[in-house]
Amino acid sequence: MLDFINDIFNVLKTLQLKDIFLDILPLTVIIYLLLRLIRETRAAQLLKGIALLIIVWALSDLADLKAIHFLADTTIKAGAVVIVVIFQPELRRILERFGQSTSSITRMAFGEDETVIARWERAIPATVAAVTQLSKTNTGALIIIERSTMLGEQLRNGTILKARASAELFGTIFFPKTPLHDGAVVMRDGYIWAAACFLPKPQKEELIDKHLGSRHRAAIGMSENSDAIIIVVSEETGQISVARDGKIKRDYTPDSLEEYLRSLLIPAEDDIFHSRKRRFSFLRRGNVKAEEEEEKKWRNIQ
Fold first, then answer.
1. Are 43 and 87 in contact (CB under 8 A)?
2. Number of separate helices (H) and strands (E) present in the chain
3. Is 21 helix (H, G, I), strand (E, B) or coil?
4. Residue 206: pLDDT band by 50, 70, 90 thresholds?
5. SS3 of residue 166 by DSSP
6. Which of 92, 127, 181, 262 is the most buried (most CB within 10 A)?
7. 78 with 250: CB under 8 angstroms?
8. Rg (alpha carbons) of the chain, rounded to whole number
9. 145 - beta bridge partners?
10. CB-hemisphere CA count at 13 Å for 54?
11. 214-225 vs 88-110: helix axis angle to the nearest 10?
12. Sheet with strand 184-188: strands edge to edge
């Protein structure tokens, strides 16, 4: 233990500015982000246990308690494998959220494709109109709007549609007793991409309000695992709710829902202008010419 303390002092003596700004500071930011990601999960409890074990290991070494030190030392060495096996779901979620943050930074740097924004301009009113109609008829619905976190796992367990968003299509999908009504619709880039998708359970289901039904619980679970926006229409009351970042807000009106979706999915004009200047052609999603032809076709239909 004393050798460890001496090593720390030796490192501090040789510390330079580049070590602080290029080594210690980035590492501190990464650790802070990881702590935020694991907050209020089982992994947070695991971290507390590891911290306690390290304290026991250090104190037993100082007090020369050989048996306790040996057990603590052995546990720490074997702990890495045990952590990976037992906490695999939590580690997976952490990596997904970390990837989500990276994807968000990339989008901030290079912006959204103009054709994607144009599709959302049409898809948002269609979605709000559909949700309003479903709310009036007390028809249960669950709509996931994908953002920077890719929802490939949910898409794989559903039925791929890749259809233009319309109130009529939403109504058909969620009409009771149709083959696709059970499950969620996933929207991607302004399309209704898939239907009948099944979602993960919430991490702390026991803490959720007992009055919330299965759709609301599934929405919270999905929002814990991604940055998606999840719209829920209650089958019992017709109430419109939105889940995001592990929380759910209820009692949306058509106007407040449309305003909320626009604020998250459609960047301001200044952002669009600057993103166009920053964008590199080889980083744009899909074939731009094909997208433009498709947009012309849809405009002609209208």
1. yes
2. 13, 7
3. helix
4. low
5. coil
6. 127
7. no
8. 25
9. 187, 229
10. 6
11. 70
12. 159-164, 191-197, 184-188, 141-145, 229-233, 240-244, 247-249
Residue 149 and residue 226 in contact, taking contact as beta carbons nearer than 8 Å: yes
Residues of the chain with CATH 3.40.1700.10: 111-279+287-301
- The pair of structure tokens assigned to 290 is 């094909």
- Dihedral Cα 79, 81, 86, 89, nearest 10 deg: 120
Q: Which residues contact 6 (CB under 8 A, 6 or more apart)?
A: none
In the chain, what are the helix, strand and coil shares in percent, each to the nearest 5? 65, 10, 25
State CA 173 to chain mean position distance. Answer: 25
Give the integer Cα–Cα distance in Å for 200 and 283: 31
Give ∠ CA 289-292-296 in degrees, rounded to 5.
140
What is the tens place of the pLDDT at every residue in 31-88?
Answer: 887 776 666 555 666 677 788 888 988 888 888 888 888 888 888 777 767 766 666 6
Distance (Å, rounded) from C-alpha 235 to C-alpha 278? 45
DSSP state of 162: E
* Largest Cα–Cα separation, the chain: 83
Name the token pair of 82: 């045990």
| DSSP string for 172-238 | HHHSTTSTT-SSEEEEETTEEEEEEE--PPPTTGGGS-TT--HHHHHHHHHHHHSS-EEEEE-TTT-
Superfamily of domain 111-279+287-301: DNA integrity scanning protein, DisA, N-terminal domain (3.40.1700.10)
Instruction: Give pLDDT tens digits for 4-25.
Output: 677 777 777 777 887 777 888 8
What is the tens place of the pLDDT at every residue in 95-134? 665 655 555 444 544 445 668 888 999 999 999 999 999 9
184: tokens are 């969620």
Closest among 211, 254, 283 to 124, alpha carbons compared: 254
- Which residue has 């149709």 as its token pair? 178
